[in-house]
Amino acid sequence: GAVVSQHPSWVICKSGTSVKIECRSLDFQATTMFWYRQFPKQSLMLMATSNEGSKATYEQGVEKDKFLINHASLTLSTLTVTSAHPEDSSFYICSARRDRGPEQYFGPGTRLTVT
Amino acid sequence: GIQVEQSPPDLILQEGANSTLRCNFSDSVNNLQWFHQNPWGQLINLFYIPSGTKQNGRLSATTVATERYSLLYISSSQTTDSGVYFCAVSGGGADGLTFGKGTHLIIQP
Q1: pLDDT greater than 90 at residue A49
Q2: 8 Å CB contact of A46 and B98
Q3: What is the DSSP string of chain A?
């Protein structure tokens, strides 16, 4: 149990367009999901915490108007990168947490390339 | 926020060797997890271990919460153990994980 999926696995988009990434918990309900970003050969950095039915909480330095997060159900959170620029190119990874504990389970990630 | 330091940053070993990876953290935690990131970027959960000792096959982990460190042991290393190992923690009312910089492990045949 505790499987998390992401879609798409990779995406290439042109500068100025928007891209939506989906994160789903497949076999459990997740009140809380998280979005992380990883640049090449670096560690993961928390971008935001997504809570079902409420506004996301963004980490300092993350533009909430650029990275729109929606957590409309207990199994789905989406991250939309608006007006993407080449510097937004990165590996985006989501995680989900069961309601009964703090352990997080990670999706396979989405590699975004903005040309 | 909590600071996480991992050591060593890089480790090259021969197949069959044992290794110890260390994670130091700066404050009390309610979550500590060890991950292995495979070449495709997927984070594989190894241990959820905010305190105590756990074992899973050739891998084991120990967290001494009072001294703010955790150790990951890999015995009889195999080439498939190669990759980056991350320690991540949360605490102080924050739910999101803070990751260390990782240990890049290379197991040579």
Answers
A1: yes
A2: yes
A3: ---EEEE-SEEEE-TT--EEEEEEESSS--SEEEEEEE-TTS-EEEEEEEETTS--EEPTT--TTTEEEEEEETTEEEEEE-S--GGG-EEEEEEEE-TT-S-EEE---EEEEE-
